[in-house]
Amino acid sequence: LDGVVDSEKVKSNNLDVKIPKSELEAEEKGMEEEPPRESDSNILDVSSDYPRDKHISIQRHLADLEKLADLREDEKKPCPLCPEEKFKACYSHKLHRHLQNLHWKVSVEFEGYRMCICHLSCRPVKPNLVGDQPFSKMGAHYHCIICSATITRRTDMIGHINRHVNKGETESRFITVRAPKSSYEVVKESATDVQVLPNHSTPQKTDSYYNPKMKLNRQLIFCALAVLSGERKPIECLDAFGATGIMGLQWAKHLRSSVKVTINDCNENSVTMIKENCHLNKMKVKLNIKEEDDETTGDGEENSDTIEVTKMDANVIMHLRSFDFIHLDPFGTSVNYLDSAFKNVRSLGIVSLTSTDISSLYAKAQHVALRHYGCNIVRTEYYKELAARIVIAAVTRAAARCNKGIEVLLAVALEHFVLVVVRVLRGPTPADDSAKKIRYLIHCQWCEERVFQKEGNMVEENPYQQLPCDCHGSMPGKTAVVLGPLWSGALFNTGFLRRMLLEAVQYGLDEAQPLLKTLVCEAECTTLKHFSIHSPGDENKQEECGVYIKTTNTSTDSYLVHGKRKSEAVLRGTAKRPRAEHSAEHPPFYYNIHRHSIKGMNMPKLNKFLNYLSEAGYRVSRTHFDPMGVRTNAPLVQFKTILMKYSTPTYVGAQAEGPVHLPGDVQMGEGIPAAAEIKVEEEAECVEDDKSAVAAAVLAQSYPTHYAAD
């Protein structure tokens, strides 16, 4: 074009933009005359050492935009946001109207800044052929103040900014910016100090996420690592998602030379904060080989106070190195990292994962559970245990793909997370044995009875026959659904839980001790009053996959196995023995006593009801999944029968509480007047009528089809 003069390239927002020389001189001159303002140095509360300047189309006031044009009455000036081909140089009054009407009025406002429309060649546009010559169309666009993206339409720009706001994203997500140290807070947990940001509890608004509600989760993982450190020393452990590094710092600070801790995170700000927290706790930092600029401890300086800090993707570091203990705690589901975790984990090592995608696991977003875990679920009374079995099934499939099997040591599902801790068994035989424990579950939607499908590939004519209830025969339509695939094995290892409890007592972890006691009782399916930490023969009752080997009944000795080859030999020897602990395995799932309470009846206290079930010959315990849940091997029919037997009727005129006895034969004295005899007989008849009415109502509620006609 004839009007284009020699231009030079100006780098703006990492894009090479060709701006005419006259515009460049006007822009530089305007920027020199413009006094520096403190408000322009920060965008979205970013520190003053912000590494890049905002685009010239983003300004606070119209006067700032006019200063870029350097308006003067006696000279013609070009528009700083339009190429000379689109808007030629003009006098100040015309340029002022142009800036106000074309750029400022159609701008997008965000936190005091205006993102004006830009007509420069920042955004590439396909050329159009006009005759024989290509005609380059200048595309109008906006520059995002947060991520520097170029958006064409104003409505799209507004939606783009709203999405950033809804996600809580700031410029620190796209550009490395360190917040001032004055904004840090120091939090102390388990004798470990960590620096966190003021918005540390919101993972989408900060790079260093710290949740104080997950303290119990961190204590349980520490106990599991402490048990493993007693089996072999030293062990290499990885915290794949460090954030503030508090979990790895607790490992290194309390276990000392027993562990070699590696804290990893893929975010630069988190890695910097982890290093600062290590120095805050007087720990030396050993950086990975790629980081040559930072401080290292040296090759020969390996001691108990050294923590290795890496900046990698979690999948990459687990593919490159082998570990004895791996903990995964991403924001959401962990299924994307399971294959890498089981790829190089050592034999008899431990993999623990914390899943916080409870909306999908607790059947609030069933389509997400199907997408992430390949599992079909519905909302049930035992939905928390269902979530734990879903995660374990995903872990089992990932381990089997790497020719490894698992033994579940611990499965906890609470309000905010699902924690699963498994031991890894190397070899195709353990992998096949673990894969066989993944089954489908048949769930009755009327009475909530449930049973795992039988093993085998043959199709049954009537799958409803596997359910103990008769709802299919008495209710119209289809009454049951198939859930899964789920883990059908045990959720706890009693011996490992007892050792975790001893570690919790030793290190003074008060929050974990009550939960571990409940888990031990739940694993043994016994009540709390029969619980004892130092019960004789504990090691003889449990086998921990090559760690605690089961001995004969006459001997109560147990021993630790160190090393890979010896443990595999012991495993081969114990595989030939009959596993008697299968019969003592805790029953799957539990019943909620409120869910099966009978209308019009006062149910007994939970502890008394547990005694009634135990006296009836059933194994029974409470469960951590539900405070009103009862884990028992009693069928649902017997569960309801015993509950109804010891429930007392609730009367409208309730004179007194307690069990109501039938009046039977009334013994009358000879000296009672006739009027009194009639009154006593009428009261007895009323009591008997009320008892009959309540009993009929109970039977009609439990068996509606048989008593509908009556």
From TrEMBL:
One of its GO terms (biological process) is tRNA N2-guanine methylation. Pfam families: TRM (PF02005). It is found in: Nucleus, Nucleolus. Residues 144-164 form the C2H2-type domain. Residues 18-40 have a biased composition (Basic and acidic residues). Residues 16-50 are annotated as: Disordered. InterPro entries: SAM-dependent_MTases_sf, Trm1, tRNA_met_Trm1_C, Znf_C2H2_type. This is tRNA (guanine(27)-N(2))-dimethyltransferase. It comes from Menura novaehollandiae (superb lyrebird). The gene is Trmt1l.
